[in-house]
Amino acid sequence: KFYGGLESDVTLRQVIESCNWQEDHTGEASQSLLKQVQALKLGDSTIRKEVEKLKQGSGGDAGDEVSIWHDMRFIPILDPGTGVPAVLAMEIDITELEMHKLAQEQLIAAANQQAQIFAAVSHELRTPLNGIIGLTEHLLDELEESGSPGGSSEALAASSNRESRKVLST
């Protein structure tokens, strides 16, 4: 039994079954953890598990549940009062940390998606700009070959060519 300032004593099974084992609808994960904790002996490593629990919302409705996350640790110890081997169970609310992790994952996904969009847009702009540069160079060559005084049209074509190259270099 576990004692922890609750209204009644709680068993190890009740602690583990209070978790929401989303990936496992058969109950195998909770049973596996229960067996691992029951098999703990002095000197064994601490068992650590992050679990989601469903907490009743403030409305009291069945569908008004809120997910909370707990870091559960099971540590083999000697009971200081009796000297009998026991398991110290600790639960720490890590909901805020999990929310930060989720927000970080969402930000990274959004940044990756944005980079993909910019890469696609960049490709879509570069192809026609390369065509424009080629045509402008062709027009400049024709103006030089014909010997006609290009004047402002030649300056416009050269300026267009320079500006297009600036866009492509970024």
From TrEMBL:
<feature type="compositionally biased region" description="Low complexity">
    <location>
        <begin position="151"/>
        <end position="160"/>
    </location>
</feature>
<feature type="domain" description="Signal transduction histidine kinase dimerisation/phosphoacceptor">
    <location>
        <begin position="114"/>
        <end position="147"/>
    </location>
</feature>
<feature type="region of interest" description="Disordered">
    <location>
        <begin position="143"/>
        <end position="170"/>
    </location>
</feature>
<dbReference type="GO" id="GO:0000155">
    <property type="term" value="F:phosphorelay sensor kinase activity"/>
</dbReference>
<protein>
    <recommendedName>
        <fullName>Signal transduction histidine kinase dimerisation/phosphoacceptor domain-containing protein</fullName>
    </recommendedName>
</protein>
<dbReference type="InterPro" id="IPR036097">
    <property type="entry name" value="HisK_dim/P_sf"/>
</dbReference>
<dbReference type="Pfam" id="PF00512">
    <property type="entry name" value="HisKA"/>
</dbReference>
<dbReference type="InterPro" id="IPR003661">
    <property type="entry name" value="HisK_dim/P_dom"/>
</dbReference>
